[in-house]
Protein backbone atom coordinates (compact mmCIF):
# COMPACT_ATOMS: atom_id res chain seq x y z
CA UNK A 1 0.00 0.00 0.00
CA UNK A 2 1.03 3.63 -0.47
CA UNK A 3 3.16 5.16 2.25
CA UNK A 4 1.71 8.07 4.25
CA UNK A 5 3.89 10.62 6.01
CA UNK A 6 2.66 12.91 8.78
CA UNK A 7 4.72 15.73 10.24
CA UNK A 8 4.27 18.53 12.78
CA UNK A 9 6.56 20.80 14.76
CA UNK A 10 6.62 23.16 17.71
CA UNK A 11 9.32 25.41 19.13
CA UNK A 12 11.63 22.61 20.26
CA UNK A 13 11.01 19.43 18.26
CA UNK A 14 9.76 17.86 15.05
CA UNK A 15 7.47 14.82 15.18
CA UNK A 16 7.06 12.40 12.28
CA UNK A 17 4.76 9.41 11.70
CA UNK A 18 5.15 7.04 8.73
CA UNK A 19 2.19 4.71 8.19
CA UNK A 20 0.22 2.62 5.72
CA UNK A 21 -3.53 2.58 5.19
CA UNK A 22 -5.61 -0.43 6.24
CA UNK A 23 -9.29 -1.16 6.59
CA UNK A 24 -10.64 0.79 9.55
CA UNK A 25 -7.46 2.70 10.28
CA UNK A 26 -3.70 2.63 9.70
CA UNK A 27 -0.57 0.65 10.44
CA UNK A 28 2.35 2.72 11.71
CA UNK A 29 5.78 1.84 10.36
CA UNK A 30 7.73 4.47 12.27
CA UNK A 31 7.10 7.32 14.73
CA UNK A 32 9.86 9.53 16.08
CA UNK A 33 10.77 13.00 17.30
CA UNK A 34 13.83 15.06 16.40
CA UNK A 35 15.16 18.35 17.74
CA UNK A 36 14.36 21.52 15.85
CA UNK A 37 16.93 24.20 15.12
CA UNK A 38 16.47 27.74 13.88
CA UNK A 39 16.53 26.41 10.30
CA UNK A 40 13.26 24.48 10.11
CA UNK A 41 13.84 23.17 6.57
CA UNK A 42 17.25 21.80 7.47
CA UNK A 43 15.85 20.22 10.64
CA UNK A 44 13.17 18.42 8.60
CA UNK A 45 15.70 17.19 6.02
CA UNK A 46 18.04 15.93 8.75
CA UNK A 47 15.26 14.18 10.69
CA UNK A 48 14.02 12.32 7.62
CA UNK A 49 17.51 11.47 6.33
CA UNK A 50 18.57 10.03 9.72
CA UNK A 51 15.59 7.65 9.66
CA UNK A 52 15.87 6.85 5.94
CA UNK A 53 12.49 8.39 5.08
CA UNK A 54 12.28 9.41 1.42
CA UNK A 55 10.37 12.45 0.26
CA UNK A 56 6.84 12.39 -1.14
CA UNK A 57 3.33 13.51 -0.23
CA UNK A 58 3.00 14.66 3.38
CA UNK A 59 0.22 15.57 5.82
CA UNK A 60 0.89 18.42 8.26
CA UNK A 61 -0.93 19.25 11.49
CA UNK A 62 -0.91 22.82 12.83
CA UNK A 63 -1.37 23.90 16.41
CA UNK A 64 -4.52 25.72 17.49
CA UNK A 65 -2.59 28.99 17.69
CA UNK A 66 -1.71 28.87 13.97
CA UNK A 67 -5.30 28.86 12.71
CA UNK A 68 -8.49 30.82 13.38
CA UNK A 69 -11.52 28.89 14.69
CA UNK A 70 -15.12 30.07 14.99
CA UNK A 71 -18.44 28.36 15.71
CA UNK A 72 -21.00 29.39 13.07
CA UNK A 73 -24.77 28.94 13.08
CA UNK A 74 -26.31 28.60 9.64
CA UNK A 75 -29.94 28.73 8.48
CA UNK A 76 -31.59 25.61 7.02
CA UNK A 77 -30.07 24.79 3.65
CA UNK A 78 -29.21 21.76 1.51
CA UNK A 79 -25.88 20.11 2.32
CA UNK A 80 -24.36 21.07 -1.05
CA UNK A 81 -24.86 24.77 -0.24
CA UNK A 82 -23.13 24.67 3.17
CA UNK A 83 -19.58 25.46 1.88
CA UNK A 84 -20.77 28.73 0.33
CA UNK A 85 -22.85 29.62 3.38
CA UNK A 86 -19.95 28.90 5.75
CA UNK A 87 -17.66 31.24 3.84
CA UNK A 88 -20.33 33.92 3.74
CA UNK A 89 -20.92 33.67 7.49
CA UNK A 90 -17.16 33.54 8.20
CA UNK A 91 -16.74 36.96 6.57
CA UNK A 92 -18.59 38.44 9.58
CA UNK A 93 -16.82 36.40 12.27
CA UNK A 94 -13.20 36.09 11.12
CA UNK A 95 -10.97 39.06 11.80
CA UNK A 96 -9.10 39.26 8.48
CA UNK A 97 -10.71 36.82 6.06
CA UNK A 98 -9.78 37.53 2.42
CA UNK A 99 -10.11 35.66 -0.87
CA UNK A 100 -6.76 33.90 -0.45
CA UNK A 101 -7.79 32.27 2.82
CA UNK A 102 -8.45 28.51 2.89
CA UNK A 103 -11.57 27.67 4.88
CA UNK A 104 -12.94 24.30 5.99
CA UNK A 105 -15.41 23.19 8.63
CA UNK A 106 -16.70 20.23 10.62
CA UNK A 107 -20.36 19.79 11.56
CA UNK A 108 -21.39 20.01 15.22
CA UNK A 109 -25.15 19.51 15.22
CA UNK A 110 -28.42 20.32 13.47
CA UNK A 111 -31.40 21.43 15.54
CA UNK A 112 -35.07 20.60 15.13
CA UNK A 113 -35.78 23.49 12.74
CA UNK A 114 -32.90 22.60 10.41
CA UNK A 115 -30.33 25.15 11.60
CA UNK A 116 -26.77 23.83 11.38
CA UNK A 117 -23.92 24.57 13.77
CA UNK A 118 -20.40 24.07 12.43
CA UNK A 119 -16.85 24.75 13.59
CA UNK A 120 -15.00 26.67 10.85
CA UNK A 121 -11.21 26.76 10.60
CA UNK A 122 -9.24 29.09 8.37
CA UNK A 123 -5.68 29.90 7.41
CA UNK A 124 -4.34 32.66 5.17
CA UNK A 125 -2.48 31.99 1.97
CA UNK A 126 0.65 33.39 3.61
CA UNK A 127 0.25 30.99 6.53
CA UNK A 128 -0.09 28.03 4.18
CA UNK A 129 3.01 29.18 2.31
CA UNK A 130 5.00 29.12 5.57
CA UNK A 131 4.08 25.43 5.88
CA UNK A 132 4.72 24.41 2.28
CA UNK A 133 8.10 26.14 1.87
CA UNK A 134 10.13 24.18 4.49
CA UNK A 135 8.48 20.93 3.41
CA UNK A 136 9.33 21.56 -0.23
CA UNK A 137 13.02 22.03 0.65
CA UNK A 138 12.94 18.50 2.11
CA UNK A 139 11.33 17.04 -1.07
CA UNK A 140 7.94 16.85 0.63
CA UNK A 141 4.71 17.90 -1.09
CA UNK A 142 2.00 19.11 1.28
CA UNK A 143 -1.27 17.40 0.32
CA UNK A 144 -3.20 17.62 3.60
CA UNK A 145 -3.25 20.23 6.37
CA UNK A 146 -5.13 19.60 9.61
CA UNK A 147 -5.57 21.27 12.98
CA UNK A 148 -3.98 19.30 15.83
CA UNK A 149 -6.81 19.39 18.44
CA UNK A 150 -9.45 18.63 15.78
CA UNK A 151 -7.41 15.74 14.36
CA UNK A 152 -6.90 14.34 17.88
CA UNK A 153 -10.66 14.59 18.51
CA UNK A 154 -11.29 12.69 15.26
CA UNK A 155 -9.01 9.89 16.49
CA UNK A 156 -10.87 9.74 19.83
CA UNK A 157 -14.22 9.60 17.99
CA UNK A 158 -13.02 6.37 16.29
CA UNK A 159 -12.81 4.73 19.73
CA UNK A 160 -16.26 3.27 20.66
CA UNK A 161 -15.54 3.86 24.34
CA UNK A 162 -15.34 7.63 23.90
CA UNK A 163 -17.30 8.20 20.65
CA UNK A 164 -20.50 9.45 22.33
CA UNK A 165 -19.01 11.14 25.38
CA UNK A 166 -18.88 14.85 26.28
CA UNK A 167 -15.34 15.50 27.50
CA UNK A 168 -12.58 18.06 27.80
CA UNK A 169 -9.43 16.85 25.99
CA UNK A 170 -6.11 18.15 27.30
CA UNK A 171 -3.16 17.94 24.91
CA UNK A 172 0.22 19.36 25.90
CA UNK A 173 3.35 20.12 23.91
CA UNK A 174 6.68 21.70 24.67
CA UNK A 175 5.27 25.16 23.88
CA UNK A 176 1.67 25.34 25.03
CA UNK A 177 -1.36 23.34 26.05
CA UNK A 178 -4.57 22.88 24.05
CA UNK A 179 -7.95 22.46 25.72
CA UNK A 180 -10.73 21.08 23.53
CA UNK A 181 -14.38 20.29 24.29
CA UNK A 182 -15.83 17.37 22.31
CA UNK A 183 -19.44 16.18 22.22
CA UNK A 184 -20.44 12.99 20.40
CA UNK A 185 -17.18 13.05 18.45
CA UNK A 186 -17.54 16.69 17.30
CA UNK A 187 -15.37 19.57 18.47
CA UNK A 188 -17.54 22.35 19.90
CA UNK A 189 -14.82 24.54 21.42
CA UNK A 190 -11.03 24.70 21.43
CA UNK A 191 -8.46 27.10 22.82
CA UNK A 192 -4.71 27.15 23.25
CA UNK A 193 -2.67 28.78 26.00
CA UNK A 194 0.93 28.96 27.15
CA UNK A 195 1.53 27.89 30.78
CA UNK A 196 4.22 29.30 33.06
CA UNK A 197 6.74 27.22 35.00
CA UNK A 198 8.48 23.92 34.36
CA UNK A 199 6.57 20.89 33.16
CA UNK A 200 5.19 19.04 36.22
CA UNK A 201 5.76 21.98 38.55
CA UNK A 202 3.11 23.19 41.03
CA UNK A 203 2.98 26.59 39.32
CA UNK A 204 2.20 24.96 35.99
CA UNK A 205 -0.51 22.77 37.53
CA UNK A 206 -2.26 25.74 39.15
CA UNK A 207 -2.16 27.65 35.87
CA UNK A 208 -3.64 24.62 34.08
CA UNK A 209 -6.45 24.36 36.67
CA UNK A 210 -7.35 28.00 36.06
CA UNK A 211 -7.30 27.64 32.26
CA UNK A 212 -9.37 24.45 32.41
CA UNK A 213 -12.02 26.20 34.52
CA UNK A 214 -12.11 29.11 32.03
CA UNK A 215 -12.51 26.64 29.16
CA UNK A 216 -15.52 24.96 30.81
CA UNK A 217 -17.18 28.31 31.41
CA UNK A 218 -16.54 29.54 27.84
CA UNK A 219 -17.90 26.31 26.34
CA UNK A 220 -21.26 26.38 28.16
CA UNK A 221 -22.96 28.36 25.40
CA UNK A 222 -21.82 25.85 22.78
CA UNK A 223 -22.79 22.78 24.81
CA UNK A 224 -26.40 23.89 25.36
CA UNK A 225 -28.15 21.15 27.34
CA UNK A 226 -25.00 19.01 27.50
CA UNK A 227 -22.41 19.10 30.25
CA UNK A 228 -18.83 17.94 30.34
CA UNK A 229 -18.75 14.44 31.80
CA UNK A 230 -15.02 13.78 32.13
CA UNK A 231 -11.50 14.89 31.32
CA UNK A 232 -9.20 13.06 28.88
CA UNK A 233 -5.48 13.77 29.08
CA UNK A 234 -3.53 12.63 26.01
CA UNK A 235 -0.50 10.80 27.33
CA UNK A 236 0.71 8.23 29.83
CA UNK A 237 1.83 7.99 33.43
CA UNK A 238 3.96 11.14 33.18
CA UNK A 239 0.67 13.08 33.25
CA UNK A 240 -0.64 11.41 36.42
CA UNK A 241 0.00 14.46 38.66
CA UNK A 242 -1.85 16.66 36.17
CA UNK A 243 -4.70 14.16 36.06
CA UNK A 244 -5.12 14.13 39.81
CA UNK A 245 -4.92 17.92 40.08
CA UNK A 246 -7.63 18.53 37.41
CA UNK A 247 -9.96 15.86 38.82
CA UNK A 248 -9.76 17.37 42.30
CA UNK A 249 -10.18 20.97 41.13
CA UNK A 250 -12.99 20.49 38.61
CA UNK A 251 -14.78 17.66 40.35
CA UNK A 252 -14.83 15.53 37.19
CA UNK A 253 -13.39 12.09 36.54
CA UNK A 254 -10.11 12.24 34.61
CA UNK A 255 -8.55 9.54 32.44
CA UNK A 256 -5.29 9.15 30.49
CA UNK A 257 -5.66 8.35 26.83
CA UNK A 258 -2.86 6.72 24.82
CA UNK A 259 -3.42 7.53 21.09
CA UNK A 260 -1.42 4.45 20.07
CA UNK A 261 -3.97 2.32 21.98
CA UNK A 262 -6.80 3.51 19.67
CA UNK A 263 -8.54 0.72 17.72
CA UNK A 264 -7.70 2.69 14.55
CA UNK A 265 -3.92 2.49 15.14
CA UNK A 266 -1.52 -0.45 15.09
CA UNK A 267 2.12 0.10 16.06
CA UNK A 268 4.47 -2.37 17.66
CA UNK A 269 7.12 0.19 18.65
CA UNK A 270 4.96 2.54 20.72
CA UNK A 271 6.60 1.44 24.01
CA UNK A 272 9.85 3.14 22.98
CA UNK A 273 8.26 6.56 22.50
CA UNK A 274 8.37 9.39 25.00
CA UNK A 275 5.34 11.73 25.26
CA UNK A 276 3.03 9.51 23.20
CA UNK A 277 0.14 11.93 23.65
CA UNK A 278 1.86 14.47 21.41
CA UNK A 279 1.32 12.15 18.40
CA UNK A 280 -2.49 12.13 18.72
CA UNK A 281 -2.99 14.87 16.10
CA UNK A 282 -0.72 13.19 13.53
CA UNK A 283 -2.36 9.78 14.02
CA UNK A 284 -5.85 11.31 13.73
CA UNK A 285 -4.94 13.21 10.54
CA UNK A 286 -3.46 10.10 8.88
CA UNK A 287 -6.49 8.05 9.96
CA UNK A 288 -8.73 10.67 8.28
CA UNK A 289 -6.61 10.39 5.14
CA UNK A 290 -6.95 6.60 5.19
CA UNK A 291 -10.70 6.59 5.83
CA UNK A 292 -12.35 10.04 5.97
CA UNK A 293 -15.12 10.62 8.50
CA UNK A 294 -17.77 13.29 9.03
CA UNK A 295 -15.41 15.07 11.45
CA UNK A 296 -12.41 15.18 9.08
CA UNK A 297 -11.00 18.63 8.33
CA UNK A 298 -8.44 19.48 5.65
CA UNK A 299 -7.42 23.09 5.05
CA UNK A 300 -5.43 22.08 1.97
CA UNK A 301 -8.52 20.58 0.32
CA UNK A 302 -11.52 22.33 1.94
CA UNK A 303 -15.10 21.31 1.37
CA UNK A 304 -16.61 22.83 -1.77
CA UNK A 305 -19.97 22.93 -3.47
CA UNK A 306 -20.29 19.71 -5.49
CA UNK A 307 -19.65 20.14 -9.17
CA UNK A 308 -22.83 20.12 -11.28
CA UNK A 309 -23.64 16.71 -12.73
CA UNK A 310 -21.87 16.07 -15.97
CA UNK A 311 -24.00 16.34 -19.08
CA UNK A 312 -21.54 14.27 -21.06
CA UNK A 313 -23.83 11.22 -21.14
CA UNK A 314 -26.79 13.33 -22.27
CA UNK A 315 -24.69 14.98 -24.98
CA UNK A 316 -23.41 11.57 -26.13
CA UNK A 317 -26.98 10.25 -26.30
CA UNK A 318 -28.22 13.26 -28.23
CA UNK A 319 -25.20 13.13 -30.52
CA UNK A 320 -25.73 9.42 -31.25
CA UNK A 321 -29.41 9.98 -32.00
CA UNK A 322 -28.57 12.91 -34.27
CA UNK A 323 -25.95 10.81 -36.08
CA UNK A 324 -28.45 7.97 -36.64
CA UNK A 325 -31.08 10.40 -37.96
CA UNK A 326 -28.52 12.07 -40.22
CA UNK A 327 -27.44 8.66 -41.57
CA UNK A 328 -31.07 7.76 -42.34
CA UNK A 329 -31.67 11.10 -44.06
CA UNK A 330 -28.47 10.72 -46.11
CA UNK A 331 -29.53 7.20 -47.07
CA UNK A 332 -32.95 8.38 -48.25
CA UNK A 333 -31.40 11.27 -50.19
CA UNK A 334 -28.85 8.92 -51.75
CA UNK A 335 -31.58 6.53 -52.90
CA UNK A 336 -33.63 9.43 -54.25
CA UNK A 337 -30.63 10.83 -56.12
CA UNK A 338 -29.97 7.39 -57.61
CA UNK A 339 -33.55 7.28 -58.88
CA UNK A 340 -33.26 10.80 -60.33
CA UNK A 341 -29.97 9.92 -62.01
CA UNK A 342 -31.75 7.07 -63.80
CA UNK A 343 -34.53 9.39 -64.95
CA UNK A 344 -32.00 11.97 -66.15
CA UNK A 345 -30.10 9.33 -68.13
CA UNK A 346 -33.32 8.11 -69.76
CA UNK A 347 -34.32 11.69 -70.68
CA UNK A 348 -30.85 12.34 -72.13
CA UNK A 349 -31.16 9.27 -74.36
CA UNK A 350 -34.54 10.45 -75.65
CA UNK A 351 -33.16 13.94 -76.26
CA UNK A 352 -30.23 12.51 -78.23
CA UNK A 353 -32.64 10.59 -80.49
CA UNK A 354 -34.74 13.72 -81.06
CA UNK A 355 -31.66 15.79 -81.90
CA UNK A 356 -30.49 13.20 -84.40
CA UNK A 357 -33.88 13.14 -86.13
CA UNK A 358 -34.19 16.94 -86.22
CA UNK A 359 -30.60 17.76 -87.10
CA UNK A 360 -31.38 19.35 -90.49
CA UNK A 361 -34.24 21.38 -89.04
CA UNK A 362 -32.01 22.62 -86.28
CA UNK A 363 -29.33 23.72 -88.77
CA UNK A 364 -31.89 25.59 -90.84
CA UNK A 365 -33.35 27.20 -87.75
CA UNK A 366 -29.87 28.37 -86.71
CA UNK A 367 -29.33 30.00 -90.10
CA UNK A 368 -32.66 31.78 -89.89
CA UNK A 369 -31.84 33.03 -86.42
CA UNK A 370 -28.48 34.38 -87.60
CA UNK A 371 -30.17 36.28 -90.46
CA UNK A 372 -32.76 37.68 -88.05
CA UNK A 373 -30.10 38.85 -85.65
CA UNK A 374 -28.17 40.52 -88.54
CA UNK A 375 -31.29 42.26 -89.81
CA UNK A 376 -32.23 43.44 -86.31
CA UNK A 377 -28.81 44.95 -85.64
CA UNK A 378 -27.87 46.39 -89.12
CA UNK A 379 -28.50 49.90 -90.41
CA UNK A 380 -29.88 50.51 -93.90
CA UNK A 381 -27.10 52.67 -95.33
CA UNK A 382 -29.07 53.47 -98.51
CA UNK A 383 -31.76 54.99 -96.32
CA UNK A 384 -29.07 57.00 -94.51
CA UNK A 385 -27.66 58.26 -97.85
CA UNK A 386 -31.16 59.22 -98.94
CA UNK A 387 -31.70 61.02 -95.62
CA UNK A 388 -28.49 62.99 -96.04
CA UNK A 389 -29.33 63.98 -99.61
CA UNK A 390 -32.63 65.49 -98.41
CA UNK A 391 -31.15 67.04 -95.26
CA UNK A 392 -27.87 68.54 -96.39
CA UNK A 393 -27.77 72.30 -97.28
CA UNK A 394 -27.54 73.08 -101.03
CA UNK A 395 -24.24 72.61 -102.86
CA UNK A 396 -23.69 76.40 -103.08
CA UNK A 397 -23.30 76.37 -99.26
CA UNK A 398 -21.85 72.92 -98.54
CA UNK A 399 -20.00 70.19 -100.45
CA UNK A 400 -18.48 66.88 -99.27
CA UNK A 401 -15.02 65.66 -100.18
CA UNK A 402 -15.33 62.37 -98.22
CA UNK A 403 -18.07 60.33 -96.55
CA UNK A 404 -17.43 57.07 -94.68
CA UNK A 405 -20.16 54.85 -93.18
CA UNK A 406 -19.29 52.11 -90.65
CA UNK A 407 -21.28 49.84 -88.32
CA UNK A 408 -20.13 49.75 -84.69
CA UNK A 409 -19.72 46.64 -82.53
CA UNK A 410 -22.61 47.85 -80.43
CA UNK A 411 -25.97 48.55 -82.03
CA UNK A 412 -25.98 51.45 -84.52
CA UNK A 413 -23.29 53.00 -86.76
CA UNK A 414 -21.03 55.99 -87.47
CA UNK A 415 -20.86 58.37 -90.48
CA UNK A 416 -17.64 60.37 -90.95
CA UNK A 417 -17.90 63.53 -93.10
CA UNK A 418 -15.13 65.69 -94.55
CA UNK A 419 -16.16 68.76 -96.63
CA UNK A 420 -16.29 72.47 -97.18
CA UNK A 421 -18.70 75.32 -96.44
CA UNK A 422 -18.98 78.76 -97.97
CA UNK A 423 -18.61 80.69 -94.70
CA UNK A 424 -17.98 80.00 -91.01
CA UNK A 425 -21.71 80.01 -90.16
CA UNK A 426 -22.27 77.15 -92.58
CA UNK A 427 -20.78 74.58 -90.16
CA UNK A 428 -23.34 75.39 -87.47
CA UNK A 429 -26.16 75.30 -90.02
CA UNK A 430 -24.94 71.91 -91.25
CA UNK A 431 -24.84 70.46 -87.74
CA UNK A 432 -28.32 71.77 -86.93
CA UNK A 433 -29.69 70.31 -90.16
CA UNK A 434 -28.21 66.84 -89.53
CA UNK A 435 -28.98 66.55 -85.79
CA UNK A 436 -32.23 64.81 -84.82
CA UNK A 437 -33.49 62.07 -82.43
CA UNK A 438 -31.56 59.26 -84.16
CA UNK A 439 -28.48 61.23 -85.24
CA UNK A 440 -25.93 62.76 -82.88
CA UNK A 441 -23.51 65.20 -84.57
CA UNK A 442 -20.02 65.95 -83.20
CA UNK A 443 -17.54 68.42 -84.71
CA UNK A 444 -14.06 66.92 -85.02
CA UNK A 445 -12.38 70.15 -86.15
CA UNK A 446 -12.46 72.95 -88.76
CA UNK A 447 -9.95 75.15 -90.53
CA UNK A 448 -9.80 77.78 -93.30
CA UNK A 449 -9.87 76.34 -96.79
CA UNK A 450 -8.00 77.22 -99.98
CA UNK A 451 -10.79 75.84 -102.15
CA UNK A 452 -12.35 78.56 -104.28
CA UNK A 453 -15.84 79.52 -103.11
CA UNK A 454 -15.59 77.59 -99.86
CA UNK A 455 -13.83 79.41 -97.06
CA UNK A 456 -13.84 76.64 -94.41
CA UNK A 457 -12.99 72.95 -94.24
CA UNK A 458 -14.80 70.82 -91.64
CA UNK A 459 -14.85 67.28 -90.22
CA UNK A 460 -17.98 65.89 -88.60
CA UNK A 461 -18.91 62.61 -86.86
CA UNK A 462 -22.51 61.44 -86.96
CA UNK A 463 -23.54 58.65 -84.54
CA UNK A 464 -26.53 56.73 -85.88
CA UNK A 465 -28.82 55.06 -83.34
CA UNK A 466 -30.07 51.51 -83.82
CA UNK A 467 -33.26 51.46 -85.87
CA UNK A 468 -36.43 50.68 -83.96
CA UNK A 469 -38.01 48.82 -86.89
CA UNK A 470 -36.83 46.52 -89.64
CA UNK A 471 -38.44 46.89 -93.04
CA UNK A 472 -37.41 43.33 -93.95
CA UNK A 473 -38.95 41.61 -90.92
CA UNK A 474 -41.71 43.92 -89.66
CA UNK A 475 -45.21 43.33 -90.97
CA UNK A 476 -46.58 46.37 -92.85
CA UNK A 477 -49.69 47.93 -91.34
CA UNK A 478 -52.87 47.17 -93.27
CA UNK A 479 -54.80 50.23 -94.34
CA UNK A 480 -57.93 50.99 -92.32
CA UNK A 481 -61.13 50.60 -94.35
CA UNK A 482 -62.89 53.81 -95.19
CA UNK A 483 -59.81 55.94 -94.95
CA UNK A 484 -58.29 57.44 -98.09
CA UNK A 485 -54.64 57.01 -98.78
CA UNK A 486 -52.66 60.20 -98.13
CA UNK A 487 -51.67 62.14 -101.18
CA UNK A 488 -48.31 61.02 -102.43
CA UNK A 489 -45.52 63.45 -102.51
CA UNK A 490 -44.62 64.98 -105.82
CA UNK A 491 -41.57 63.84 -107.60
CA UNK A 492 -40.05 67.20 -107.05
CA UNK A 493 -40.32 66.79 -103.19
CA UNK A 494 -38.72 63.31 -103.21
CA UNK A 495 -35.85 64.07 -105.51
CA UNK A 496 -32.91 66.05 -104.22
CA UNK A 497 -32.41 69.57 -105.56
CA UNK A 498 -30.40 69.79 -108.74
CA UNK A 499 -27.14 71.65 -108.35
CA UNK A 500 -24.57 72.87 -110.79
CA UNK A 501 -21.03 71.57 -110.47
CA UNK A 502 -18.76 73.89 -108.56
CA UNK A 503 -15.12 74.52 -109.20
CA UNK A 504 -13.27 73.40 -106.05
CA UNK A 505 -9.78 74.07 -107.39
CA UNK A 506 -7.62 76.32 -105.20
CA UNK A 507 -6.85 79.81 -106.60
CA UNK A 508 -3.10 79.44 -106.40
CA UNK A 509 -2.59 76.04 -108.06
CA UNK A 510 -4.73 73.18 -109.29
CA UNK A 511 -5.91 70.84 -106.60
CA UNK A 512 -6.15 67.13 -106.81
CA UNK A 513 -9.50 65.66 -107.47
CA UNK A 514 -11.45 64.96 -104.31
CA UNK A 515 -12.70 61.43 -104.04
CA UNK A 516 -16.04 60.72 -102.49
CA UNK A 517 -16.31 57.50 -100.51
CA UNK A 518 -19.62 56.09 -99.76
How large, in whole angstroms, is the Cα Rg? 59 Å
Give the integer mean of the pLDDT values: 85
CATH T-level fold name of the largest domain: Nucleotidyltransferase, domain 5
Largest sheet: 6 strands, mixed
- Specify the number of helices: 13
CATH architecture of the largest domain: 2-Layer Sandwich
Q: Which shape, going by the Cα principal axes?
A: rod-shaped
Spatial separation of the terminal alpha carbons:
116 Å
Could you outline the blueprint of secondary structure elements for this entry?
Elements (H helix, E strand, L loop, with lengths): L2 E7 L3 E10 L2 E11 L4 H11 L5 E7 L5 E7 L7 H12 L8 E9 L5 E8 L1 H13 L2 E8 H10 L8 E7 L4 E7 L2 E8 L8 H17 L1 H4 L6 E5 L5 H11 L3 E4 L7 E2 L13 H11 L21 H46 L1 H19 L3 H11 L6 E10 L5 E9 L3 H10 L4 E10 L7 E9 L26 H4 L24
Parallel strand pairs: 1-4, 3-14, 4-8, 9-12, 12-13
Antiparallel strand pairs: 1-2, 2-3, 5-7, 6-7, 9-10, 10-11, 15-16, 16-18, 17-18
Helix pairs in contact: 1-3, 4-8, 5-7
Amino acid sequence: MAKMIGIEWDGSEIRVVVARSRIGGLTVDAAFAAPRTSDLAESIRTALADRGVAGGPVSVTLSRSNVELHVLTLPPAPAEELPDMVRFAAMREFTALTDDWLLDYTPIEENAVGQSTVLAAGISGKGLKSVETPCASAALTVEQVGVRPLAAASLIARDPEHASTVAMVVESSSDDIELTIIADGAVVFSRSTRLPGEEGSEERQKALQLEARRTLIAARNQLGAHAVEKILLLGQEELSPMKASLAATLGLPADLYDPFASPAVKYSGADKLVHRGRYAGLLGLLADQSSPSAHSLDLRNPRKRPAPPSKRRMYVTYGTAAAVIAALVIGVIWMRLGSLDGQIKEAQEKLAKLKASNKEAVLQQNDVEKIDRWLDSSIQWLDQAYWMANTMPPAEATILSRMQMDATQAAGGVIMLDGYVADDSGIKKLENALRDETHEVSNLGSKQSEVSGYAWNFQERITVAKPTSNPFTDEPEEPQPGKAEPASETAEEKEPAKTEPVNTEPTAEPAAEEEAQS
